[in-house]
Amino acid sequence: MDPNPSSLPRPRRRPRRLRRSPVIRGLVRETRLTPDRLVLPLFVVDGQDRAEPIAAMPGHARLSVDLIIRRCREAIELGVGAFALFPAIDPKLKTPDAREAVNPENLLCTAVRAVHESVPQACLITDIALDPYSSVGHDGLVSGGVVLNDQTVDVLAQMAVVHAQAGADVVAPSDMMDGRVGAIRAALDQAGAHDVGIISYTAKYASSFYGPFREALDSAPVDDPNVPKDKQAYQMDPANVREAAIEARLDEAEGADMLMVKPALPYLDVISRLRAASDLPIAAYHVSGEYAMVKAAAEKGWLDERSCMTEALTGIARAGADVIFTYAALDYARWWRDGLL
Ligand code: PBG
To answer: Alpha helix locations (H) across 81-234?
Structure first.
């Protein structure tokens, strides 16, 4: 071939040189997402040998504690050692004051104790918010059509202590009440739980991508004129990013060990902003709806699951997330093990 088929000017710098072969691409790859940066969310339900599939989350089910333990062992084999536990509470135990949340014998605490005992190397992250226990489906106490802030924070702080006493390694407040990180830190320290960390859901948006999760826990806000119909009066407006920086400064000052952005893909700029604004580790939650989108399109044959899921997770890491909570953690870890990535 004529090396210079025309007399048009030719580029001296050719970025394609570094894309010529898999080996060269490997040398210059900027982001490598290893399975040890993933957190696997798990849904716990009462009972024994019980697995209730969640329709909009293929591959996930509400699992009884014995099956949770088995799942944790499987994950650890694959290099995923951290788990975010969410309880599917019996509707009979849900009340307007969500009092089951602070019962040391509740489903979540029982699960934490059992997993901690059988799989001591697992890092157990528990969710701090009232919605799984609330008969009205809110993360806080509701009165006069409003989700109360400071009264809720008192309950959340108690809840964190109860989780720590059951053996939680990290508590993760996902409720978006003001001042909860500081209150939880103080309560944990007072209870002697100095080593229990806090991953704060710092910038949690009022997102519609949580749909499948709310189905899993049956935790959506109820239809009642005295109950806010959505979570917009506490979760953040998807249009805002500076506000996330304010939340980050507050959470850092209040003692958070890690900051989280949630959801992930529609908020890559927020991840990158917090990465630049703080030296704390940044986590991102690739939420149920983000997972469901890829799974559903793959089931229809419209997208390739492995490459799309991997591209999404790599993008989240590239934006600046050190840690990613994802329902695809086990799939990803298997692809990684099998040398498919
Ligand atoms: C509630 C909570 C939610 C999620 C995690 N904790 C839902 C909500 O705020 O309504 C969503 C996770 C997901 O969609 O995967 N405290």
So the answer is: 107-118, 150-166, 180-190, 211-217
